[in-house]
Design brief:
The chain has about 130 residues and is α/β, with parallel strands linked by helices. It contains 5 helices and 6 strands, in the order H-E-E-H-E-H-H-E-H-E-E. The N and C termini lie far apart (about 25 Å).
Length: about 130
């Protein structure tokens, strides 16, 4: 049994399958999810687990070479906006509609219980060497 890191077997397994250039969407409970990507749904109740908790847990385990979010987060969710800026100094901002389009080609979607708008980020995996 693992004693640290991500303990959810579905999420840990999905992360182990990722490669360089694959994308992972970490999203709030309201984000529409297309049928193609693998989905690990962690949502339990509104706000649980939070976007911040899940994002930080994933960042502890993944090499991320880029991140993309919706520019609407700036006005609608200052807390998520600040979190994203702190974690990704080179954050790319696009429209929410474009982010939803890109989600269709994501390798993995991790749905949180976050109940605040635009708490979504598309991570692009890098390599550790």
């Amino acid at each position: 049994m693992k004693k640290a890191g991500i303990l959810n077997r579905h999420l840990a397994g999905a992360l182990a399958e990722l490669g360089h250039g694959d994308t992972v969407l970490v999203c709030d409970a309201g984000m529409p999810i297309p049928s193609r990507p693998r989905v690990v749904d962690l949502a339990f109740r509104a706000g649980v687990p939070s976007f911040a908790e899940v994002l930080d847990g994933l960042l502890d385990e993944l090499v991320v070479e880029g991140a993309t979010a919706a520019y609407e987060v700036r006005g609608a969710n200052p807390e998520a906006s600040s979190l994203l800026d702190a974690r990704f100094p080179d954050l790319t901002l696009i429209s929410h509609e474009k982010l939803k389009e890109l989600t269709a080609s994501a390798r993995l979607v991790v749905r949180t219980g976050e109940a605040h708008p635009y708490a979504n980020v598309l991570l692009r995996c890098g390599v550790f060497f």
